[in-house]
């Protein structure tokens, strides 16, 4: 009876991956889910997982012994990137070391588009840097691996950007410079992660996980205004002008600082979202979602219809 350990189920990707893993796992599969704080899992969700045969344990990427306790006997384990910018590599090394100590054969990792940029890490855009380092650790580990490089989530627009539009004078101010990008639904990324953990991917293979088509931010904004009755203006700014705009308004320059503004990203994170699109990192689409899950990737329209409340 093969055992798979799915860590990080308290987050959005991990929660979706958990539910999908239970849909597609063969009957003789043992599924162990972990999170750093099981008490934060909604009761209804936990009951549903347990009813379908999964067990939930506490484990943290920052506590290697807690990982070893659940990795024992597992065929494959996963690592979902966290918000711990600057020490993600330490968390990754803990997962790798725990996996090797327990005889695990394979690791699956949620990386990010651009992690294969050949430039030195300090010359890369902000967001892929930690992922490039983590991918290198995984390759050097000797473990079999599957890596998914997720494109930017279309979910980021209602989650992070839409709340700030009114405070910007009903303007969406961005820096993607009308370059199209194939935004992906976070739900699809979670499903792909479960599929890879359960062995649907090819050994030692990296998958770009994309939406079905490349669209500009302006197109997305215009659709939102048309669909939800919003009225606003799309403003494309040069990178440095956009940085100055947000810094003057008090947006944190350090990821560890909480934002006092409706915009809940730090300056570098915000700027990099547009930069990734503008520099063409997200121009190409892939068939990863359909080939690994059997379902076509969700369009940006299908995804955003689930966030109507964010645009009212």
TrEMBL record:
Signal peptide: none annotated. It comes from Penicillium angulare. Residues 9-149 form the NAD(P)-binding domain. This is NAD(P)-binding domain-containing protein. InterPro entries: Ergot_Alk_Oxidoreductase, NAD(P)-bd_dom, NAD(P)-bd_dom_sf. Pfam families: NAD_binding_10 (PF13460).
